[in-house]
Amino acid sequence: MGPRIGVVTFPGSLDDHDALRAVRLSGAETVPLWHGSDSLDDVAAVILPGGFSYGDYLRCGAISRFAPVMSEVIRAAGAGMPVLGICNGFQILCEAKLLPGALIRNDVRTFVCRDQRLRVESVDTTWTSAFELGQEITIVLKNGEGGFVADAETVNRLEGEGQVVFRYLEGNPNGSFNDIAGVTNERGNVVGLMPHPEHNVDPLTGPSLDGLPFFASVLDFLAAVA
Ligand SMILES: NC(=O)CC[C@H](N)C(=O)O
Q: Given CA atoms 74, 76, 77, 78 in this order, what sign does their dihedral have?
């Protein structure tokens, strides 16, 4: 049995089961976690999945950020545990201040759903080490509030310190500053992105298998620290 990887379900989570399935396909042990729990159940890494937690009321992720489990996620992230936020999970990580910046309504003012081309801008994170630097990949994107924004100083710091992890290619779908699709914290253990790698792990559904390296990366990391 591989390492234990948890996926948190919030009220309104949508992609928790796909995230669990991707974890299982990668060879890790899946651990469903509940938003109201104050335990991470001895997991070695945790994923905050996509969806519409708390109905996106106030702002996406603004209520989930206060879920009891988030206190534990914040504590564990501070101790170096790998944390991946996918779409709504990325929004929650920004609201929780585990990642810099914020996600605002798409500039096109509509929900956007498409196969999105991306460039891998950093392989120095626990979730992207199995990619090649500069690799171009295709990952499903589907959100209404995916515009990444931050103050100029923060954007410059993210660019300068190599904390931009993914950039949109072939058109910016949501008005994100500098075409930023995903970022990491300084340590590289917390990563958030708007596209959905958990949907791109099975040749039957396609359009690529470019989600698999996320899970291979964290398994490599966990094997190295075990
Ligand atoms: N796919 C998702 O996780 C969607 C996130 C959020 N509900 C939004 O529309 O932006």
A: positive
